[in-house]
Amino acid sequence: MKTAVVYWSGTGNTEMMAQEVLQGMKDQGAEAEMIEVSSFQAEQMGDYDAIAFGCPSMGDEELEDTEFAPVFEACESALSGKKIGLFGSYGWGDGEWMRNWEAKCREDGANLVQDGVICNEEPDDEAKEACQELGRALAQ
């Protein structure tokens, strides 16, 4: 199984989460790679059996809008039927951005393997384990 973790990170917290998701994928025996969103193109969606997208909450609980959101929006037409996982960190709010993002993915027909993984600021051991679980679920 070929999987990818596509992410954007401002402070490094979401990148740490991405590394844990990647580890979970590899633990399941998947061929897995971690890709910064600036190096990912919508045309690559078909290259992967499952993709984890990671982006922190920005502004008024929304996806980072300069790099991440434009790439994700370009990928939306390829989400239907695709195994997808979502994750990201936040510094304020209650996770509304993740609920909105999950709803958008469901509207697009994505197969969300589980609820998105969120953590406040730097991921603790519980958040790291949740990220690994997400990676394992995507690689099954």
UniProtKB/TrEMBL annotation:
Coiled coil: none annotated. Its cofactor is FMN. Keywords: Electron transport, Flavoprotein, FMN, Transport. The keyword Transport applies. One of its GO terms (molecular function) is electron transfer activity. Residues 3-139 form the Flavodoxin-like domain. Low-potential electron donor to a number of redox enzymes. This is Flavodoxin. It comes from Candidatus Blautia merdavium. Belongs to the flavodoxin family. It comes from the Bacteria. It holds the Pfam family Flavodoxin_1.
